Amino acid sequence: MRRLIGWAAAFMASSVLPHPRAAMETIAVNDNRVAAGVLDAGILTIHLEAREGEWHPDRDDEPGLIVRAFGEKGKRLQVPGPLIRVAEGTEVHAFVSNTLARGTLLVHGLSRRGVSSDSDTISIAAGATREIRFLAGAPGTYYYWGTIDGAPTDDQSSRDAELNGAFVVDPSASAQRTPDRVFLIGLWSRNPEPNGLIGRNDLVRFTINGKAWPNTEPLSYMVGDTARFRIINTTIVPHPMHLHGFYFKVDSRGNGTVDTVYDRAAPPFRVVTERAAPGRTFSMTWVPERAGNWMFHCHDNYHVLRNRPLDGSPIPAEHLMHVTNHAREMMGGLVMGVEVRERRAPEIVAQGGTRRALRLVARVDSAAASTDIEPAYGYVLEERGKPSHAVSPFLPGPTIVVKRGEPVSLTVVNQLPERTSVHWHGIELESYFDGVADFAGAGAHIAPAIAPGDSFEARFTPPRSGTFIYHPHADEVRQQQAGLSGALLVVDDPARFDPQHDIVLLLSVPRRETDRDTVLVNGSKTPPPLELRVGERYRLRIVDIHTFRPSMIVSLRRDSSLTTWRALAKDGMDLPAQRATIRPARQQMGNGETYDFELAPAAPGDLRFMINAAAGPLLTSMIVRVR
């Protein structure tokens, strides 16, 4: 906790304005591929310096920011700082210099890893150098970071937010190292909010290895490769990191000091979204099984908004933009593009045959006061010409129920006054149908945004039963807040699906900005009571598709006490028996996550389903009546 508080203080004290070009060192972007220092006879010697330089989180030829950063002595500064990567058992011999004219450099994380410690802070006066020796410690994913105490407060061009770097300890040198990539998440902000929430119009730069989308490093793999990522969240806000099209295995989770590496012999944690809390790390493995373009991004929509100019000038509203590429021009921040290529010429796979045909119509919700600034949109689901509901309001989006293993055709019809698309979140499908406008697909065969009056047919055959989501992937914040999102359920037998016992609880953002301190449950700020019976079993499918609250906590209480439920699934993947346990009915959720729980009420009486902000305030609640 002390680390997080100290980091937050540095973050909130940082500068606010981009600096004009001057005779100052240009900071290099560090892709974390090359380890720093010199390794000799089991000892890594590294000389680190904290200096000021000009950093370009966007294109290199665009305006930059003057920030403080780490670099090796005699080499360029880097953002993130130089990668410290050694094998277990290595001794680290570090010399850390504070080259600044004023202020004391406080460095954290340069101590033995894998051991909790309250005293790993190193204090270095201006102009001084400290020598440090320590054993690297346990294998895992870690980081080091610094702040300047006592720097001039009138110099508004200097910041500490980029004073950090990755620190990786591999298994012993005798073990074969598995290739991986290290991705450090950073955040620069002009006016950070004290509660850690990022505002829709805040001037920020969320970066991965020093760059913001669409300037993040493009990744490339071949079908069948094994991709391994180490994710380090050095920011003060959580990031639910989502991979399109594939499940990934969570191999470890850590707090920057201690890393828990999971036993490979144990059942894996398989998810499509993993929430990285502030100061936390995780590592992941996935195998790209289908070719095409895929995204890996934070699912807090405010963390992938367009990048405002660093001079603070405003940008046009979404509905006034006329862009040629929604993915590159309407997204920013924490996004990485992944190209997966075939190892040989792809076989032509016929997409014909018998498919269940559905139409999903996106339209203006005439029952609500729709404006250009705060539109009211909704979905209507049609099958054989019969709509799911023809009378607005169209909140929530209709629950789509499809059969596992049955081919389905979902034609999205756009009756909105603006372009849209639909992403089938968590579904394993071909890239072209994934729903990322102007990005999904491969080569010249790229799926376009759906123009007003036009349509797009998505085809897939869901391989597993589970709880998934559908939502726009063009102008996501605007269109999701307008009402465009819903649950997508894959079941073994739709004829046996019973919505009285198989209950969707969709958590979403209200349409009006004045209601931002509440959360909608199934489209309502005041959801009607849920009626249950003693002795019967119910499946609760909790779907978080909120746009900007990445840390909400859901719970089920009788009076003030938590009741219990059994965990069943995460992100549509059934949990192994060891983790499908009865537990207190409380779960913290990140945007884009789904959780399934089994509830078997043992006694009559009223329960209360509650959604709270991470800091505690109640956002919405719903009565659950047990008879």
Q: Rough shape?
A: globular
- The poorly predicted ranges are 1-22, 153-158
Number of domains: 4
CATH-derived topology of the largest domain: Immunoglobulin-like
Proportion of helical residues: under 10%
Q: Give the terminus-to-terminus CA distance.
A: 44 Å
Broad CATH class of the largest domain: Mainly Beta
**Helix count?**
3
For the record, the CATH architecture of the largest domain stands as Sandwich
What is the SS-derived class?
A: mainly beta
Explained architecture:
There is one protein chain. The chain is mainly beta and 627 residues long. The protein has four domains: 2-174, Cupredoxins -  blue copper proteins (Immunoglobulin-like, Sandwich), CATH 2.60.40.420; 204-341, Immunoglobulin-like; 356-497, Cupredoxins -  blue copper proteins (Immunoglobulin-like), CATH 2.60.40.420; 513-626, Cupredoxins -  blue copper proteins (Immunoglobulin-like), CATH 2.60.40. It contains three helices and 48 strands. The two termini are 44 Å apart. The model is unreliable at 1-22 and 153-158 (pLDDT under 50). The longest helix is centred in the N-terminal third of the chain and has 11 residues, at 2-12. It is 4% helix and 42% strand.
